[in-house]
Every structure is written in structure tokens, then in C-alpha cells.
Design the sequence.
């Protein structure tokens, strides 16, 4: 008799967005795996409210919606414990993947449930700074670390910092974020022109995706906008929202470039319809005392979209880009302005960088990342059996 599939349960608030399930969707296509994903029924933050998005037709992934409370406070939100208990009582799972930070209450809550039930489980962390958390968050992290069977880091710097902090290296694995290659793809010239026309912008288009904050490099973006030569053809597309939006809008009025700049907040599932129309994407993340870029998913989404990328040297960005884009010192304002102006005037170089990105992105597609997850889930199951 053939062995039954490995039954995997993965829980995370990011799964409200269908694109964030792409890697596990590929895992579930393997008949050796039976994958169930748990997502909050509704997730709120300071920008918007997201109801869980449906799975595509024909997906082998099972998605279970549960209620969650206080979701606008990410450190304190909680899953409905009775609904989680009913799920665990109604279906046996071999391993559990908790896609929540070990120091937040939801991560602690889920880890405690799995520990009490004797289920092998892992936690997923994106922290690349070895922080010491105040009570009760430090207690949450220490408890989860003591209980978990293994742990996952989203990048090499995250892994290194967590090891320095005390996470055991022999139970840690680096599993990166992934881009859904089924949604992100390059546009041809006609498609790019159509999107540019719909936005009321002319090419070449400079793009940015992310929160409008100092940490995401908005001071650099403001300086670039201030110095761009109005005699050159260019447009700026800012996809996001945040505290710096008023400053962007004020500078646009001051410079009289409202016909060249668009500011729009796009749901993640709409980004693939717009990003490939850009000619370059700027990722000027800035390191602060409490944060540095943990992965830079926008870089691999740009790679998959055939868009040239300029990124800072903050955190994981240089490792993710791996020579497939331009990496600049995060505080080199003159260098940033010069690089943007140079790429605006050099179509050949932009195309060259776009091609390098398309070559690089294979290791970050959902299909490319899924084998690592399958190997890890098998390891987690075996280690759980050995510990038992």
C-alpha cells in the first residue's frame, strides 16, 4: 500500500491574500502532500480591511477561514481558539507551519496549542535585528523557541541574527519569500503603453511600491523627484500610502509636475496589472535603529515583471538582487539621483538589467521555492517523530 500524503497545516494572517499562498499551492500539487491553510476571515490594518481572498479554480490547496480579533494591532491579535480547536479535532495533521512571528501573541497562542497537542511545528521569522523585547513579548519568544521543533528564516541575515540571539542553527532553515510567476510577467510594448495611457503617464515610468515612510526611503524619493530634469521624458508612479503622502503631494504641486506623478494605493492582487508597465523600480530602503529591509519582495516582483531595479544596500536586498540590479549605498543621495537619470537616458542598459532580473527570479518563484518547503516539511515530520 502506498504511503499516505504528508498532512501539512499552515497558519498565517498573510494568507488572506491569495498571492501569498502561491508557494504552498505548488506544494499541494504534489500528491505526496495534503496542505491546509488557515487565514483570518477578515484582516484589518491602518490602511484597509481585507476579507480572505478565494483560491483560484482547480487549486489543490484547502483554505479554512477563522475569526481573528484585534487584527489592526499585529502584536496583539488573536485567532479564535475554539475554531482552531475544532479544526485540529476534525482533522489529523502531521506537521504545522506557523507563519507568525514568535514574539507576537498570535505566534505564541498557536505554538502553545500545538505544543500541548504534541504536534511537530515550526515558526517563521523575518527579524534581521537581534532585538530584546519587553514583557510579555520576550516571554512569548522564549516560550515558542523552547517548544518548537524547528524554525524558518526568510533570509540569510535573518538566520544569522536569530542564531546570534540563541535560536539553534541545527533546527533553522532559510526559506525565502516567493513571487507568483503565474501573475507577475513582463508586458510587451503595446501593453506597457496601454497601462501608461490609462494612468495618464508617459514613458519611461519610474516605479515605487511600499509604505510611504522614512524606512522605505521616501526621503531619497523626494530628493530624486526634486532633482529630475523636467526637460527629460519621465513619469513617477508611487504605489502605496503612508505618512509621507502629504509631502509627496506638496512637492508635486510645488514643482508643477502633477501630470507626471501618480500616487495610488493598489491591493496586492492588482500590482501585477501595473508594475510591468514601469521601466525601473526604486527600492531605496533605509536602515534604522530598529529596522532594516528583511527581504524586499518588491525586487523579485519587479524581476518577474521584466523591470530594471535599483536597490539600496539595506538588509537583505543585495543578497536577493545578486548582481541582477543596481545596488547603491542607502544614504548616497547623489549616487541615487545619478543612477536614475542615467537609466532614464539609457534604454539598452534598462533592458539589460531587466533581462538579468528575469534570469535571477527563477530561484524566487513559487515553483522554485516550493521544493525547499517540501524538503523542510519532511524534515520537520521526521524530527518530530525522533523527538517523540
Sequence:
Amino acid at each position: 500500500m502506498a504511503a499516505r500524503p504528508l498532512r501539512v497545516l499552515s497558519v498565517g494572517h498573510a494568507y488572506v491574500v491569495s498571492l501569498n499562498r502561491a508557494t504552498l499551492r505548488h506544494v499541494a500539487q504534489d500528491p505526496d502532500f495534503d496542505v491546509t491553510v488557515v487565514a483570518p476571515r477578515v484582516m484589518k490594518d491602518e490602511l484597509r480591511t481585507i476579507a480572505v481572498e478565494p483560491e483560484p479554480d482547480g487549486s489543490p490547496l484547502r483554505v479554512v477561514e477563522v475569526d481573528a480579533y484585534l487584527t489592526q494591532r499585529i502584536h496583539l491579535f488573536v485567532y479564535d481558539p475554539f475554531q482552531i480547536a475544532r479544526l485540529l479535532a476534525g482533522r489529523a495533521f502531521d506537521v504545522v507551519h506557523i507563519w507568525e512571528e514568535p514574539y507576537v501573541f498570535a505566534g505564541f497562542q498557536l505554538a502553545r496549542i500545538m505544543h500541548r497537542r504534541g504536534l511537530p511545528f515550526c515558526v517563521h521569522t523575518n527579524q534581521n535585528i537581534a532585538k530584546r523585547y519587553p514583557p510579555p513579548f520576550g516571554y512569548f519568544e522564549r516560550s515558542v523557541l523552547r517548544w518548537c521543533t524547528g524554525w524558518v528564516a526568510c533570509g540569510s541575515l535573518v538566520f544569522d541574527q536569530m542564531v546570534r540571539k540563541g535560536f539553534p542553527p541545527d533546527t533553522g532553515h532559510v526559506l525565502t519569500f516567493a513571487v507568483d510567476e503565474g501573475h507577475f510577467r513582463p508586458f510587451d510594448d503595446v501593453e506597457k503603453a496601454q497601462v501608461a495611457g490609462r494612468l495618464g503617464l508617459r514613458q519611461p515610468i519610474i516605479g515605487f511600491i511600499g509604505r510611504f515612510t522614512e524606512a522605505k526611503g521616501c526621503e531619497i524619493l523626494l530628493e530624486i523627484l526634486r532633482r529630475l530634469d523636467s526637460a527629460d521624458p519621465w513619469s513617477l508612479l508611487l504605489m502605496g500610502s503612508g505618512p509621507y503622502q502629504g509631502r509627496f503631494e506638496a512637492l508635486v504641486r510645488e514643482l508643477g509636475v502633477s501630470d507626471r506623478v501618480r500616487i495610488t494605493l493598489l491591493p496586492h492582487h492588482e500590482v501585477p496589472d501595473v508594475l510591468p508597465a514601469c521601466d525601473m523600480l526604486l527600492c531605496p530602503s533605509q536602515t534604522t535603529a530598529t529596522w532594516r529591509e528583511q527581504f524586499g519582495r518588491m525586487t523579485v516582483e519587479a524581476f518577474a515583471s521584466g523591470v530594471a531595479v535599483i536597490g539600496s544596500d539595506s538588509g537583505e536586498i543585495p543578497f536577493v538582487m545578486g548582481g541582477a540590479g543596481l545596488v547603491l549605498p542607502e544614504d548616497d543621495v547623489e549616487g541615487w539621483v545619478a543612477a536614475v537619470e542615467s537609466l532614464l537616458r539609457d534604454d539598452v542598459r534598462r533592458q539589460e538589467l531587466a533581462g538579468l532580473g528575469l534570469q535571477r527570479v527563477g530561484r524566487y518563484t513559487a515553483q522554485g521555492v516550493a521544493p525547499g518547503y517540501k524538503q523542510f516539511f519532511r524534515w520537520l515530520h521526521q524530527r518530530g517523530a525522533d523527538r517523540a
The chain has 13 helices and 17 strands. The mean pLDDT is 95. The chain has two domains: 6-178+365-387, 189-364. The two ends are 25 Å apart (CA to CA).
